[in-house]
Target: 3-dehydrosphinganine reductase
Amino acid sequence: MPFPVPSASTLTIAAATTAAVTIPPTIYNMFWGENKLPVEGRLVVITGGSQGMGLSVAKLLSKKGASIAIVARNPTKLASALAEIEACALHPGTQTFHAVSADLTQASECARMLDEIRVWGGVPDIVWTCAGFAVPGFFKDLSAQQLEEQVRTNYFSVMFTAHAAINMMMRYPLRKGVPRRHLVFTSTVMAFYTIAGYNAYSPAKAAIRTLADGLRQECILYDIDVHCCFPATIYSPGFEVEQTLKPELTKILEGSDEGQTPDVVAEACVKGLEKGQSLVVTNMLGEAMRSACWGGSPRGCWWWDTLLSWVVAVVWLVLGRMMDGDVHKYVKKHGIPMRGKKAAGPREGGIGGPGERTQMFL
Ligand SMILES: NC(=O)C1=CN([C@@H]2O[C@H](COP(=O)(O)OP(=O)(O)OC[C@H]3O[C@@H](n4cnc5c(N)ncnc54)[C@H](OP(=O)(O)O)[C@@H]3O)[C@@H](O)[C@H]2O)C=CC1
Ligand SMILES: CCCCCCCCCCCCCCCC(=O)[C@@H](N)CO
Model:
């Protein structure tokens, strides 16, 4: 049977109906949509809240009237961060603030941390994980210990925190007048597309996205909303350390990303969460990268996200090759980068000359 080709008028009617059904609600939501993440009078836990993005999120939510508990390892940094967060309070008399020192790579510490917070201020309404950091470097050059540390810090800490939080939330009834609880994870745009030099970090961050996708559905059972944020470069203290370790090639590949301050990233994330988005990005680069990777995740504004994904599919034909081209160009000019040394010198002849391959292992 031949494939039935719809007529031009059928297609026009289909397109007009789709637009009529989808565009007005988007416009309505843009101006009159309710805030899907009200925080005034709620208790929010923020892991990694002692610096960078986590601290900015904590200050912003404090300004919006939330009580805040921050978690990180270093008690000195926690104490000074807590003072800053407290100084931002909307209702200084009624909001409360607390800091817990814990190493969240350990399951038992995640459970203890949440328990301490429950005893201090009750069951949290929102748990937002920001703890994490990258140790950039070529995969072959990182030690097994560094590989493991990246997975523990970036993925295990989120997995264990979410596990402990959901279990606690299910043991206690919702606070009066609070219809839902929220889990918010922090990943990175490199969960959508990653580059040379981040291949211990990005897989762990991509796992967070998958956890968010799966838990979003599972937690419908418990009236818990699950979201995941995907910032691009954040000019944070952690980023400054990263820069000292980052291979030259990684800096070249990252080139097109302008970077944002922690405050700007926090604002953008909260804005997306207030709109009720599941996958939240913070700038246009994030939008473009996310649009290539929707999979089964719920779109924010589906017609815009779908249109953008078509554009990016075409642009990527060229851009994806340019990114790989940068690697080819680099190795041609500098040779294979060697650990602890500058690049090994210009490569002669074709890619992967036998001499150089051997040198790598000496
Ligand atoms: N910086 C960037 O360019 C980007 C960062 N991200 C992600 O955003 C989040 C925030 O990044 P950024 O603002 O750079 O943060 P920073 O690296 O500046 O700070 C990290 C925070 O996490 C805490 N932390 C680290 N390890 C642990 C641990 N094992 N247990 C408990 N707390 C821990 C740190 O405190 P302490 O050391 O005292 O424990 C600190 O508060 C991270 O998840 C990061 O991966 C995403 C995209 C880009
Ligand atoms: C159409 C699609 C365009 C895609 C262009 C791709 C360009 C790649 C940019 C990579 C940016 C990396 C940000 C890293 C942030 C991060 O997570 C680290 N700083 C870790 O902390």
In short: The chain has two domains: 34-294, 315-360. The chain has a mean pLDDT of 91. The CA atoms of residues 128 and 301 lie 23 Å apart. Residues 134, 188-190, 193, 195, 232-233, 239, 242, 254, 256-257, 288-289, 312, 315-316, 319 surround 3-Dehydrosphinganine (ligand 2) (CB under 6 Å).
